[in-house]
Each structure stands twice: as structure tokens, then as C-alpha cells.
Design a protein that fits this description.
The chain is an alpha/beta fold. It has 2 domains: about 130 residues, Periplasmic binding protein-like II (D-Maltodextrin-Binding Protein, domain 2), CATH 3.40.190.10; about 100 residues, Periplasmic binding protein-like II (D-Maltodextrin-Binding Protein, domain 2, 3-Layer(aba) Sandwich), CATH 3.40.190.10.
């Protein structure tokens, strides 16, 4: 009986060790896995491929979560479904946090900036735009004023003194001598809407996907040397300072990734590593 009791205790001890070890193993695997949300459009699959290689060199696994809208990525990081997302610039993130009451997401680090522009299927310069031309602009508040600022900087309309580009909207137009009409468009519809307007705002990736050469075909481009719309990776607040987020940040320093981005955007791209110091 004594031997039986001893054997039973030994088996229970082994079971406990196995159970505890399994929990520790699961936690360790989770700590070594980076769940990152991005789109699978444009060059994102190539970006993810490079990031996977770079984080693997540091002992981590990148788990790619594909989401192709601009609403879910922050919500999925906020509720803990993912660790981080890559798709947005800082003004959009700040506005989204205010509008949706996001509590558990913060900026992790800056990535790069690519200027946006005005493009047209009908005209090759702003001077060719007719009186009363219809111009497509983003509907979301963080991007709404970007096309207006480009038109202002070209002397084609005036905006209220002191208004910032991240807060500008049609209500801030004080003089519209060419009687432009503005059609507010969801980000994902900008490329399609270009067929129905005289000119329209496009992010450069959409412009390239539409067949434009940004430096040659843009009616106007934002100044790449004043990057108000800084790209970020947003992360869960509990991961601030976590080794796996540092590994992800290090992956963005890859020369292979920089070569890929330069091959697509040319000299227009500005890398923002200096802001993370």
C-alpha cells in the first residue's frame, strides 16, 4: 500500500509538472509570436515576407493577420486579437482613437512617409482643370484637408488662416475662385471614383496601381520633406517596451525592405527612423 501511494504521488507530480510545463510552453510561444495586421493588397505581401525573415533572425515568428479595411485593424489590436497593425498614419490613428473610444492601442514606432497627390484621367495639369471642376477628396476627417492644401499651395483656392491640414475641411475654404466642387470619397473608393471626377486625391500606392507614374503624372504632390502624415505601427499598450515589438521595429531597418520601398516610391519616400530615437 505504501508503495502504491508513493507511485500515485509520483504520477500526480509528473502530471502537475506536465500541466505546468504546457502552460509555460504556451506562454513562451505567445511571447515569441508577433500577430501583425496588414492588408494583402499592393506590396504588403512582399513587405510581410521580408519582415518574417527579419524577425525570425531575432528568434520570433510573424503571424500575418490579413484585413482589408481601415476600421477593423485598430479594433482588433484593441480587443487583443492582434499585437500590432501596419496600415495607417499618425493623424488617422489619433482621430480614430477619439472617434471610437479606443483604450488599449498606442503608437509603437514610426515607419515611413509617402506623399499623396492629385491625379486625373482627363487632364495633365492643374491649369487644364475647367471652371467648376469636380475634385475627389477623402471623406475621413484626418485626410479631408490634404487635397485642399495642395490646391491652396498652388494658389487655386484660399483656406482659413491658421487651419492645420489635419483639421481642414470644405468649411475652411474662404475663397474658391474657380468654383470647384468636391466629392468626398471613402479611401477604398478613391481609385474607382477617379473615372467620374475631373481630378482626385490618391495615396501613392493607389496611384501606382492605377497606372500612374507619380513623379511624372501627378497634378500636384505633397512635400515629402514635411511629413505631417507619418506612418506608424500601432501596438497594444501592454506591449510597450516588449522585446517582440523591438524585434519588429528592428525588422523595419532592413536594407532589403528599404530597397523594396524605394523601388516602388523612388525618392518620394522618407524613412522615419530618426523619430524613434
Amino acid at each position: 500500500m505504501t508503495r502504491l501511494k508513493a507511485l500515485t504521488c509520483a504520477l500526480l507530480a509528473i502530471a502537475c509538472i506536465g500541466g505546468c510545463g504546457g502552460g509555460q510552453s504556451t506562454t513562451a510561444a505567445r511571447d515569441k509570436t508577433i500577430k501583425l495586421i496588414t492588408s494583402d493588397l499592393w506590396i504588403f505581401p512582399q513587405i510581410i515576407s521580408i519582415l518574417k525573415t527579419e524577425v525570425a533572425r531575432q528568434g520570433y515568428v510573424l503571424d500575418w493577420v490579413v484585413v482589408n479595411d481601415i476600421i477593423q485593424p485598430n479594433k482588433l489590436v484593441d480587443d487583443g486579437t492582434a499585437d500590432a497593425n501596419l496600415f495607417q498614419h499618425e493623424p488617422y490613428f489619433n482621430q480614430f482613437v477619439l472617434d471610437h473610444g479606443i483604450k488599449n492601442v498606442t503608437r509603437g514606432f514610426y515607419t515611413y512617409f509617402v506623399p499623396s497627390g492629385l491625379f486625373s484621367k482627363k487632364y495633365t495639369s492643374l491649369a487644364q482643370l475647367p471652371e467648376g471642376a469636380t475634385i475627389g477628396i477623402p471623406v475621413d476627417p484626418a485626410n479631408n484637408g490634404r487635397a485642399l492644401f495642395m490646391l491652396r499651395d498652388k494658389g487655386l483656392l484660399k483656406l482659413r488662416e491658421g487651419v492645420e491640414v489635419t483639421h481642414a475641411s470644405q468649411k475652411d475654404i474662404t475663397d474658391n475662385p474657380h468654383h470647384y466642387h468636391f466629392r468626398e470619397v471613402d479611401q477604398l473608393m478613391q481609385q474607382r471614383t477617379l473615372e467620374d471626377v475631373d481630378a482626385g486625391f490618391l495615396f501613392l500606392n493607389y496611384a501606382i496601381m492605377a497606372g500612374f507614374n507619380p513623379t511624372k503624372d501627378a497634378l500636384a504632390l505633397e512635400d515629402p520633406h514635411t511629413p505631417t502624415y507619418r506612418g506608424i505601427v500601432a501596438i497594444r499598450k501592454d506591449l510597450v517596451g516588449a522585446p517582440k515589438i523591438k524585434a519588429l521595429q528592428n525588422a523595419f531597418l532592413s536594407e532589403q525592405l528599404r530597397h523594396l520601398l524605394r523601388s516602388k516610391y523612388g525618392d518620394a519616400i522618407v524613412f522615419l527612423d530618426y523619430l524613434n530615437k
